[in-house]
Design a protein that fits this description.
By secondary structure, the chain is of the alpha+beta class. Helix content is 39%, strand content 27%.
Amino acid sequence: MALKLLSHFSNDIGIDLGTANTLVYLKDRGIVLREPSVVALDTTTRKVRAVGADAKRMLGRTPGNITAIRPMKDGVIADFDVTEAMLRYFIKKVNSNSFGVSPRVVIAIPSGITEVEKRAVQDSATHAGARDVHMIQEPMAAAIGVGLPIHEPAANMIVDIGGGTTEIAIISLAGVVFSKSIRVAGDEIDGAIVNYMKRAYNLLIGERTAEEIKLRVGSAYPLDEELTMEVKGRDSVAGLPKTIHITSQEIREALSDTMAAIVEAVRSALERCPPELSADLVDRGFVLAGGGALIRGIDRLLSDKTGLPVTVADDPLSAVANGTGAVLSDLNWLLQHT
């Protein structure tokens, strides 16, 4: 009876703890929080000054005693204490009217995560105020979140390109038949843009500018109408501020190696797929989720390279969070399948 009362008052939540962004799904309410996974710290006292969007605005712009850091790297925890502080802030923010009862939490984790990394996520969430912590593999959460019929005896394939990892999974009968996780994703794309600007123009830019370039002119496939934009940064030779103009063709060239790595990972997953399930994929193809799915023409590139139909999810950024939310109402199913 006491347990029933607890669950009545607590807000069970699903968390997509991403390298770039953290999304929180509140049971029966949907996604209630969507903030960058960034924390601003005072370097002398180690006190948290800001979390999420407020902290991201400080990236690359902080005075000496404040540093804005991203505690997640490649989909896993790089700084335990800071991740815990960030989770505590997010959990508190969405769990404010729960009469002080700790929530049950479902967290999505990369499929290639080690047991040590898994334990770090669990401990972080527990210390941040979770009552129970359950985990679900990111590609499974993404597949549920985009509405794939994972319970059917047929192949469902998802490619989730996040900030730190690209997760690929083939799912049938509610189980993962094959999964692959590579640490090449949005961050790597931003890094490729930073390196290109330095190499081609001696222009030094920060990660926020690189992300803006990716969103405004980034593409994986030739566009019907190529785009241009103005970029401001610092000349690495003269040391002075400088403005240049770039085109989407240049950025596509800069991203070619990163895109090739994602294509290669998808192809290797398809090569490991059992023949019966491969036959299903010829008609069904696969679905793209995650922020990387929004890069112009990435669906056409992957379709070209695999010969399969490729669909971009309706709301690729929310896929994993929606998946964690969907399993909140049936935690027994999650316990049976993990």
